[in-house]
Design goal:
Blueprint: H1 2-17, E1 23-29, E2 35-37, E3 44-47, E4 53-59, E5 66-70, E6 78-81, E7 84-86, H2 89-120, H3 124-149, H4 154-157, E8 160-162, E9 165-166
Parallel strand pairs: 1-9
Antiparallel strand pairs: 1-4, 2-3, 2-5, 5-6, 7-8
Helix pairs in contact: 1-3, 2-3
Amino acid sequence: MKRLIYFALIALAALMTSCGATYTTLTVSGTPGTVIKNAGDDKVLGTIGESRTLQVNLDRDKYYAYLLSKAPQSDEFVPFALEFEEETGRYYGSSFGVGAGMGLACTGLGVEFSGLIVLLAGLPEVGGIMVGAGAAVGLAGVGLGWPLVYNDNSDVEHCYKYLPSSTNDDIFASGTPFPLRYRK
């Protein structure tokens, strides 16, 4: 029984301290040597290598409509849109986890309260087991539901995921994108 309690406590600690990734990975393709930069904070995210692709880590708490790219032969940063698609699976999974965690926590609290009543009625063996089991189930529910309740990941909340995107760094590769003619 003692080993079971220790195992339950270790499992509960592991559940409560686990968390999801706080970034998502995006593949950007383009001309080798192209610099990719975040438009929001002017942070350089990387340079496209000889493989013509770059893995970029983006913060999941924010939405990125576009990034900036600068071709090796250009002095201008050009915005390019990020491709995305609707994905509801993670949202429904997160919602189910919150519901299951809240259900377990409420069930554990109910068993624990019933155990306290049985304990006060004069049955310490049964009441103690009920209180302990209720506390374990309640803490497991809190460990499951709490991290998901405070999940502020924009991509999960708004049901999207980024797809591989490509730069349009060839716009300013040869100077002006189209000839400008002024009439006098």
